[in-house]
Amino acid sequence: MASVYNRSDKWYIRFRDNRGRWRAKVCGAATKTEAKRMAAELGLQQERQRMGLEARPAEDGGGTFAELLRWWLKTYSSKQPSHERNVLTITKH
């Protein structure tokens, strides 16, 4: 059963994760009602994963290190002046 609480003008969701451990997470809800709705959805999703009805996220984050580097180059490095140097360094190693 998920719950919500307010701390420092932010709404937090407390729920059991897909391994059965209690977790707290800040949510972007503006009202308590919205936070409760988000908590219920997240709690249901985690429970379905615990029961095996939905696939759990990969423990290692999924994908390979090479895919992660390609994503980083495209998303973050491409906007930097050192992008070409980053590409050369990554392809070399």
- Overall mean pLDDT: 93
Order of helices and strands: EEEHHH
The description of the largest β-sheet is:
3 strands, antiparallel
What is the global morphology? elongated
Can you tell me the residue ranges where pLDDT is under 50 for at least 5 consecutive residues? none
Strand content range: 15-25%
The oligomeric state is single chain
- Helical fraction equals 40-55%
Radius of gyration: 19 Å
- What's the helix count? 3
Distance between the termini: 47 Å
- Broad structural category: alpha+beta
Side-by-side strand order of the widest sheet: 1-2-3
Total number of beta strands? 3
Give structural notes.
There is one protein chain. The chain has 93 residues and is of the alpha+beta class. It has helices at residues 32-51, 65-75, 83-92; strands spanning 3-7, 10-16, 22-27. It has a three-stranded antiparallel β-sheet with strand order 1-2-3, covered by helices on one side. Strand 2 and strand 3 form a beta hairpin. The model has no long low-confidence stretch (mean pLDDT 93).
Primary descriptors:
single chain; 93 residues; alpha+beta; three-stranded antiparallel sheet; 3 helices; 3 strands; 44% helix
Offer a concise description of the structure:
With 93 residues, this protein is an alpha+beta fold.
Secondary structure elements and pairings:
Blueprint: E1 3-7, E2 10-16, E3 22-27, H1 32-51, H2 65-75, H3 83-92
Antiparallel strand pairs: 1-2, 2-3
